[in-house]
Amino acid sequence: MENLRLSPLINESQIQKRILEIAKELDRDFKGEELIVVCVLKGSFMYYADLIRALNLDVKCEFYGLSSYGDSTKSSGQVRMTLDINASIEGKNVLVVEDIVDTGLTMKYLLTNLESRKPKKIKTTALLFKPEAVKEKCHIDYVGFEVGNEFVVGYGLDFQGYYRNLPYIASVQNMN
Ligand code: IMP
């Protein structure tokens, strides 16, 4: 592993508190309705697992695999689907769960793709949002936290495949 320094940015209790707030908003917005919740792999698996457990709704789980970063800390600019969802979303309420929106390319790709399948309604949530990095305008309905234009890891987010298992979010500085 390279010589990296991690600076804690958002701790576990801050994350859990914010997730409960977002779950409450979703419970209110989708009251009495069924929701297909789409986990965008790999980075959102932790946020997804905590969020769905905090929801008091009839939820169905789907998984969508996308890749745009490879081993780099910069988006390749090309989004590749690695796994498609398994169910029809036509006429259904859908919530897309992302770990982080950086350039917005991934979210734009996702929305274009899922909207073409004619859902009743699509809403989006991202635990983290980097407003300074956005290149493709995309609306995020439920944002966890805004962060600066820096590379972050932990709570599902990786650097070269590492650090996804950290229970908190940290920024990464390269010490080389
Ligand atoms: P975007 O397409 O540039 O918005 O990037 C979206 C994807 O890139 C996210 O779902 C993450 O998987 C990854 N990503 C973007 N920024 C970071 C970061 O700071 N740390 C780890 N992964 C990131």
Number of beta strands: 9
Largest sheet: 6 strands, mixed
Give Rg in angstroms.
Answer: 16 Å
| Helicity range | 10-25%
Uncertain runs: none
In the CATH scheme, what's the topology name? Rossmann fold
H and E order: EHEHEEEHEEEE
Biggest sheet strand line-up: 4-3-2-5-6-7
At CATH level 2, the architecture is 3-Layer(aba) Sandwich
Strand content: 25-35%
Which overall shape is indicated by the principal axes computed on the Cα atoms? globular
> What ligands can be seen in this structure?
inosinic acid
Return the domain count. Answer: 1
Determine the number of helices (DSSP H or I, runs of at least 4 residues).
3
End-to-end Cα distance, whole Å, is 12 Å
Give the CATH class. Answer: Alpha Beta
Query: What is the averaged pLDDT score?
Result: 93
Helix/strand/pairing class, anyone? alpha/beta
General description of the model:
This protein has one domain: Rossmann fold (3-Layer(aba) Sandwich). With about 180 residues, it is an alpha/beta fold. The protein starts with a strand and ends with a strand. Helix 3 (about 105-115) links the parallel strand 5 (about 95-100) and strand 6. The model has no long low-confidence stretch (mean pLDDT about 95). The strands form two sheets. It has a six-stranded mixed sheet with strand order 4-3-2-5-6-7, with helices on both faces. It contains three helices and nine strands; from the N terminus they run βαβαβββαββββ. Bound molecules: inosinic acid. Inosinic acid (IMP) binds near residues 98, 99 and 100.
